[in-house]
Design brief:
With 211 residues, the chain is an all-alpha fold. Helices cover 61% and strands 0% of the residues. It folds into 2 domains: 87 residues, Endonuclease Iii, domain 2, CATH 1.10.1670; 99 residues, Endonuclease III, domain 1 (Orthogonal Bundle), CATH 1.10.340.30. Helix 3 crosses helix 10 and helix 11 crosses helix 13. The longest helix is centred in the C-terminal third of the chain and has 19 residues.
Length: 211
């Protein structure tokens, strides 16, 4: 367990992390009064979770959901089906040529998903980014929500960068590297800090309209 660190299993875990962050930083305390209870955002780990993350890259949430529904209907969320799918099959489901290639690469990568559950965060990320189509952001999101890692952050996420700019009154949106440095202070609850920032971003957009 020491290798893996804290796992977020329930809303109580998220609430514990939020309380810790709110006590540590008044900006988080202020955000928490605005956003209310934070979502658990856990999902089952495995091939489908990673494929869903690939499907969601650079498309709207609505588009990603529609494509995913077509993939599920065609049985293409199973690795053995994806591995043997034709370009036409995948195009009919809404996948671009590039994402079709990524989906087949994932299906053939031979990832031992059960083994990932007991690897340290950095080794999980390293294994996943070795697969074509899986970048650091996708690997970090998988570690957060499919594996429940409590201390993983995704500083390349534009919504997190913009939320940090607003919440901490920064002059400009922080870079990936700058936000990663900021997030070091939020350990061991960095994934809960991400949940706060995402929730704050949504509230800020609703209050201000299009920013």
């Amino acid at each position: 367990m020491n290798m893996v660190g804290r796992i977020i299993h329930s809303p109580d875990c998220v609430a514990e992390g939020a309380a810790w962050l709110g006590a540590r930083d008044p900006a988080f305390a202020r955000a928490l009064t605005l956003v209310g209870d934070l979502p658990l955002r856990r999902e089952e780990d495995g091939f489908a979770a990673l494929l869903r993350a690939i499907v969601g890259q650079q498309v709207s949430v609505a588009s990603a959901r529609a494509i995913w529904a077509r993939l599920e209907a065609a049985g293409l969320t199973l690795p053995e089906v994806m591995a043997g799918a034709s370009d036409d099959d995948l195009r009919a489901a809404g996948l671009s040529r590039q994402k079709a290639r990524y989906g087949r690469a994932l299906a053939g990568a031979g990832i031992d998903f059960a083994a990932l559950r007991i690897l340290p965060d950095d080794k999980v990320i390293a294994q996943l980014v070795a697969v074509p189509g899986i970048g650091v952001w996708t690997a970090e999101i998988y570690a957060m929500f499919a594996l429940g890692r409590a201390d993983v952050f995704a500083p390349g996420d534009l919504a997190l960068q913009e939320a940090a700019r607003m919440l901490f009154a920064l002059e400009a949106r922080p870079t990936d590297k700058a936000l990663r440095r900021m997030a070091a202070d939020w350990s061991p609850w960095r994934s809960v800090a991400a949940r706060i920032l995402w929730a704050y971003y949504r509230v800020a957009k609703e209050r201000e309209g299009i920013m």
